[in-house]
Design goal:
Blueprint: H1 2-28, H2 36-55, H3 57-63, H4 65-79, E1 83-88, H5 97-118, E2 122-129, E3 133-140, H6 153-164, E4 168-172, E5 179-186, H7 187-190
Helix pairs in contact: 1-2, 3-4, 5-6
Length: 191
């Protein structure tokens, strides 16, 4: 994970240098560079920073899944018109650090799949627990995922992460529209 973060930071630095060079060029050659190009580059730099931050496990553990999800959702709303309804009715910090990171990555991948493939404008996430189990329910109102897309690396990563903790995965597209994902973890496997 550190290598990925370093590579992203390197990209961020290169983009910042490119932005500075564009600003110098635009001052010297007024009208040669489109006015919106530096703005586009600034937005790209912000997105790279967001990706770098979201990939850092330290931020997830320091701030907690709820805080990191809130920040991710706030930033995604700026990029795409999606309404998020998130309900987390348990303290996720009670679970071991590794599991917290895997759970966050599962949720990230689900959101990523929705944004890339489904054209949804609503995402619902509900995380609850009982005395012995943790339940994760994720639904979007977009298009059903094509079977080929449903077997992509994102879904495979989710399945791998769920199986690491002996979770029961119920990915269910029986709805005419949208993606429905349910997962149950036994608490004694994630504490």
């Amino acid at each position: 994970m550190l290598i990925c973060s370093i590579e992203i930071n390197s990209i961020g630095i290169k983009l910042s240098i490119l932005k500075l060079e564009l600003e110098i060029l635009s001052k010297e050659n007024i009208g040669l560079i489109k006015n919106d190009l530096p703005i586009f580059l600034s937005e790209t730099i912000q997105e790279v920073r967001m990706i770098s931050r979201s990939q850092s496990s330290d931020f997830v553990l320091e701030n907690g899944i709820v805080t990191e999800l809130s920040q991710l959702v706030r930033k995604l709303k700026l990029l795409k018109e999606i309404d998020f309804q998130i309900e987390i009715n348990c303290d996720l910090r009670q679970f071991n650090n590794e599991f917290q990171i895997h759970l966050y990555r599962i949720i990230q991948e689900l959101i990523n799949n929705t944004i890339k493939h489904s054209n949804a404008n609503l995402i619902e996430l509900k995380i609850t627990d009982s005395k012995e189990e943790l339940f994760v329910k994720y639904i979007d109102n977009g298009n059903n995922v094509d079977e080929k897309e449903g077997t992509g690396s994102g879904i495979k990563n989710i399945i791998t992460r769920v199986s690491l903790y002996n979770g029961n995965l119920i990915a269910n597209n029986i709805l005419k529209k949208g993606f429905n994902f349910n997962c149950v973890f036994t608490k004694n496997k994630i504490n």
